[in-house]
Amino acid sequence: MPTIGGWEWIIILVIVIIIFGVGKLPEIGGALGKSIREFRESSSRPEDEQSDESVDGSKA
Question: Distance between CA 38 and CA 58 in Å, rounded?
């Protein structure tokens, strides 16, 4: 499977700017960063902690 090169990233960035506008980019970047952090935190937790949270529905 080929990887995405420099020109492809530039085209994707231009399309995102056209769709969302320059003003929304920091907001979108912040939301994306928060999502990635939450995913990393949840994937690094041991399985027993994750199952405990799903049972009570709250964090310890």
Answer: 15
Instruction: Write down the residue that tokens 């994707």 correspond to.
Output: 12
**Residue entry with tokens 């420099």:** 6
Q: Give me 25's structure tokens.
A: 């980019």
pLDDT tens digits, one per residue of 8-47: 989 998 998 899 898 888 998 899 999 999 999 988 877 6
Helix (H, G, I), strand (E, B) or coil at 43: helix
State how far the alpha carbon of 48 is from the alpha carbons of 2, 24, 39, 44, 45, in Å.
Answer: 38, 39, 17, 12, 8
Task: Record the pTM.
Answer: 0.50
Q: And the tokens for 24?
A: 């929304």
